[in-house]
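step 3/5: co-fold with fructose -6-phosphate
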Amino acid sequence: MCGIVGYIGKREAYPILIKGLKRLEYRGYDSAGVALINKRDDLNVYKTKGKVADLENFCSDKDITGTVGIAHTRWATHGEPSSVNAHPHYSESKNLAIIHNGIIENYAQIKKNLINKGMHFRSDTDTEVLVQLIEYIQVTRKVPLLSAVQMALRQVIGAYAIALLDKREPNQIIAARKASPLVIGIGKDSGEFFLGSDASPIIEYTDQVVYLDDENIAVMRPGEPLKVVDIHNIALNPDVQTIDMNLGQIEKGGFPHFMLKEIFEQPECLKNCMRGRVVSRTVETRAMTDGKKEGPMQSHTEMGVVLSSIVDHRQQILNAHRIIIVACGTSWHAGLIGKQMLETYCRIPVDVEYASEFRYRNPVVTKDDVVIAISQSGETADTLAAIKLAKEKGAFIYGICNAIGSSIARATDTGTYIHVGPEIGVASTKAFTGQVTVLCLLALAVGKEKGTVSDKDYQEITTQLWDIPEKMKEVLKLNNKIADLSRTFTYARNFLYLGRGYSYPVALEGALKLKEISYIHAEGYPAAEMKHGPIALIDSDMPVVVIAPHDAMYEKVLSNIQEIKARDGRVIALVTKGDETISKIADEVIELPKTLECLEPLLATIPLQLLAYHVAVCKGKNVDQPRNLAKSVTVE
Ligand code: F6R
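step 4/5: write tokens
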């Protein structure tokens, strides 16, 4: 998730671009860059690792003149954060410069073809591959930039929002999008155009905007009307809209808080997380007629998981005698779910450790162990220290991080990024479901290689995992219902969250969310443990959230609910759609779409995030920045 800004008109572009980048910095902030065409038609690119302020410093002695420019703030996906990998990227001849938000999935294949044709690459990014492809087509087919862009975009698979400059066509910006947002601001009399990943860099100058649709390309030339075509060169009528939102609303995508925005982003985030990792292939088999003769060819689709970390480090991972997961807070809860998946489908024993405990107690770790470190920020001091300790003891270290190029990502031997984009709300939401998704992919990939997961389970889980984003959208439709429900419970002083099996870590996560943003005391417990103590707390003032999907633990959890009701407790039950038994005894029921048991946490967590959010809002708390908490805990 990167930030894109562009300007073309009569004003100096640089100040507009820098201001726009600062407004977009919430989208990503590991490096930044700008490309400007000056009066002599030089195309100057300046970029640096760090924040927009670092870019300003870097540019302080450079030629920053020009009325045409594009700029970018990066949240790395391919290639570590560095000046070389920062955008804009030049083409081979340096006639073109591009900025890009998204992921070009087939970049490796395109890059290989271009290298075979003699092209050279400066960075590790998928973005450079795209600008090189455009230039290659421009030169070999002798076509104008727009046609080259159209031909290139017809070849790429993936998501993109791009903006492109060509110094030989200096009075023009070309922009295009697919599955990544892009907004064009139309200045007075079409004399100038603004470009942004969202409208935040634009609203200061104009309220007239065009939101590009997928596979649409915009050509901006000052003094001319905005031209929009699709990648097949069909001309389109730009739909000019008037925006009526303030800056804060735009950065938060129209949501009142980043936390709510991030909860709602989860379907899209999981698609990004699985993109290129969950793959389908068509398998052809020949049918047999009457059991003997060969019949016609038949085909069916098989799903599979590809994780490059497993391909590259097969021996270390498959031969692990034990896996130790180290993490803190929400990431630790994801680890508890990962333990169940890895033990079930890989038959490797898994310990889940609080990094802060592990690092101080001289744990038994050997070179046959694989340590999985889970961290959204990639900067948590205890997790980093736990990795260092495990490394000293010879373990192989696997990272599951969100922040690319972070300290933890760099300290690991290999790993998998969750690719859910920057998480701004202090309470972790989309990172949790991203972490659980990656742990599921890991369990499937390792289980398949080891032969410990049956073909049936492998196919079924992969297929159902792929369907989770759509089911998450169903769950998000419960938002209003949960908001109403929250009002009833705003004045509760304590909450209990119960679950068993895969739902137990969900109970812990639900309780943590409520505690940290609403300041209501909440505890998560394995449901069966209730009778060993917490049952004494239950009375009519105690809301008990029970995660009770229709799985192997259902009957047991049903008994636990009856025990609570017998003591006058108020039960909010999360059940599988169509459940008639619990619906009759629980006080409140939240229905979830059916999925496989191991995937239930991905759906059940969402109502609990929403419950915590709405209770905190009702109590007037600062949801995005709760007291005493920091987004990244870089101290012990
Ligand atoms: C809870 C939360 C924290 C973090 C924990 C670890 O909502 O955000 O509990 O999960 O501080 O942080 P990371 O994952 O960045 O290592």
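step 5/5: annotate
The chain is about 35% helix and 25% strand.
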